[in-house]
Amino acid sequence: MSTEQEPTTPQDELSQVPSTQQPEAEDHAAALDELQDRWRRALADLDNLRKRHAKELERERAAERARTAAAWLPILDNLDLALAHAGSDPSAVLEGVKAVRDQAVDVMRRLGYPRYEETGVPFDPTRHEVVVAADDPDAEPNTVVQVVRPGYGEGENQLRPAAVMVSKRQE
Amino acid sequence: MSTEQEPTTPQDELSQVPSTQQPEAEDHAAALDELQDRWRRALADLDNLRKRHAKELERERAAERARTAAAWLPILDNLDLALAHAGSDPSAVLEGVKAVRDQAVDVMRRLGYPRYEETGVPFDPTRHEVVVAADDPDAEPNTVVQVVRPGYGEGENQLRPAAVMVSKRQE
């Protein structure tokens, strides 16, 4: 019983099944045997497909994990480089680390999780998590006045909301 | 036609199928109809399983990507923190960056890709990529004398081999 063979559609195969109107009992028995065989094969295909899917799922998960982790290799390499050159010039290290941070933000963006840290925008409960409500007479009420921790990704692809300070609503 | 219903095993259902030895043509026709119905249902299940699996695969890929990327959020946060405190004390920045690098190496390890950068070990083509063969009279021949770039992960989970300098084989 081949498991690789694609089953044909019901329409295709049914047209080849001997008619149920045939008068001879022998023909009926043969038709029944053939149908039983096809049905058994379909159930076996179903079973094999399930097993194959479970394996495929595991393989794809591992591949996605490897792809995502590999995107961070340059960050690690550049942290190593920044530290290797640390002895010579501390301010150069600082520049190097800034560049690595920007590169890491870009890795997140390319993976589908852009960073957001805007202030002055209206509070949005789907993107912002309020850590403190601030009394700020100069700010519009219910507005992000400071981002304590940036957010990454949006909607279904949100890794985390931005942690923000929001101006109080006017009483 | 329900797609959620688990099909019973061929053994179960075949035992309920009227015997092919029944003499009456009517009974045969009924048995044939029932078998056709079961077979059609199995093919429909097969089709639905395929569609469901394609969706599941996409969902699981996205979930794995999010899980893996989220492991890097603390690294980004700590790079931000190191830079935020940069003005005060350059040597403190250096300590902070070292800690971030070690943390990043640990993220890789937890994701299943431990770092390796040993020297003095025999050259292993599955873990090492030779960037240069060195004349080193003090070293055992065919030994890793320097790691130019660490490797991450091993075997099936290898992200990349270590780039190394290897002492030449003795002539």
UniProtKB/TrEMBL annotation, chains A, B:
- Keyword Coiled coil included in the entry's annotation: yes
Q: Does the keyword Chaperone apply?
A: yes
Q: Where is this region: Disordered?
A: 1-28
A matching Pfam family: GrpE
Could you tell me which PROSITE patterns the record lists for this protein? GRPE
| Organism domain of life | Bacteria
Biased composition of type Polar residues is found at 1-23
Q: Where in the cell is it found?
A: Cytoplasm
UniProt feature coiled coil, ranges: 32-66
* Swiss-Prot/TrEMBL keywords: Chaperone, Coiled coil, Cytoplasm, Stress response
InterPro entries associated with the record: GrpE, GrpE_CC, GrpE_head
What's the family? Answer: Belongs to the GrpE family.
What is its biological role? Participates actively in the response to hyperosmotic and heat shock by preventing the aggregation of stress-denatured proteins, in association with DnaK and GrpE. It is the nucleotide exchange factor for DnaK and may function as a thermosensor. Unfolded proteins bind initially to DnaJ; upon interaction with the DnaJ-bound protein, DnaK hydrolyzes its bound ATP, resulting in the formation of a stable complex. GrpE releases ADP from DnaK; ATP binding to DnaK triggers the release of the substrate protein, thus completing the reaction cycle.
Q: How does it assemble?
A: Homodimer.
Q: What is this protein called?
A: Protein GrpE
